[in-house]
Amino acid sequence: xxxxxxxxxxxxxxxxxxxxxxxxxxxxxxxxxxxxxxxxxxxxxxxxxxxxxxxxxxxxxxxxxxxxxxxxxxxxxxxxxxxxxxxxxxxxxxxxxxxxxxxxxxxxxxxxxxxxxxxxxxxxxxxxxxxxxxxxxxxxxxxxxxxxxxxxxxxxxxxxxxxxxxxxxxxxxxxxxxxxxxxxxxxxxxxxxxxxxxxxxxxxxxxxxxxxxxxxxxxxxxxxxxxxxxxxxxxxxxxxxxxxxxxxxxxxxxxxxxxxxxxxxxxxxxxxxxxxxxxxxxxxxxxxxxxxxxxxxxxxxxxxxxxxxxxxxxxxxxxxxxxxxxx
Length: 327
Hints:
Layout: H1 3-17, H2 29-38, E1 44-46, E2 50-51, E3 55-60, H3 66-77, E4 95-99, H4 104-111, E5 120-123, H5 133-144, E6 148-152, H6 164-181, E7 184-190, H7 209-214, E8 217-223, E9 232-240, E10 249-257, E11 260-269, H8 286-296, H9 301-308, H10 312-324
């Protein structure tokens, strides 16, 4: 067989396997109808806080216990110890937990000799990897076929999440991972210090509002300021596309008891009962007072933004508000 014939055969073989990438996935609406009717509803992985095949965001102050809660979630949904039986897990999934927070020694202190579920895998970023953390996660998901991804925390994927455009770009990459691998994910993020007086809301995420807009579900972890109940944490769902958001919050207590250090269900209550007593919304937030102070001391808007952890546009807007209030 001559070279031209071989080349023709090779081209034909390539054409048979080649699926052209189109700009949009375009179908008649009745074809979409058939597709979505046949789809099963996403399973509850952790009550109504986490549904399968969705992007969930958990936020809260630093050192409030978010990572501890996330480790418990990973163990429960992967088929291990059910640390929170009040929140049903309808199916078990193979979990990848990308941990940028805890060292191995910290893990040892928290969990000792506890034997984890075989479906729970933990990973750390390899700092010899020359590409982006998102590409590292994508490569790992590709080679190991995980069904659920937990990222702890978002800052390590992209440090300037307070910048609106950067946050949008990051969320688009996470959405791509979700669609490409048909997986769900929990993304943990720290936020600028939350007020002890204010209820937790979607816009409590401050400059991370663009992250919130692209998430399917969001819940927050708050601290109790109620007298004699300062040991409590509360979990509040602030966004959910698959269930009605409840008025009450879930109360937990962190306890070092068998089989490992974890959040333990304490009960349910109303958030207002666990805020500081004078929890009225003030015209000036805590971070705004800091902006005014730094500006008065000669710091530029960008320097203030870096110190407080908000965007420079937020600083500019705050300073204009201060001028209007004649502060």
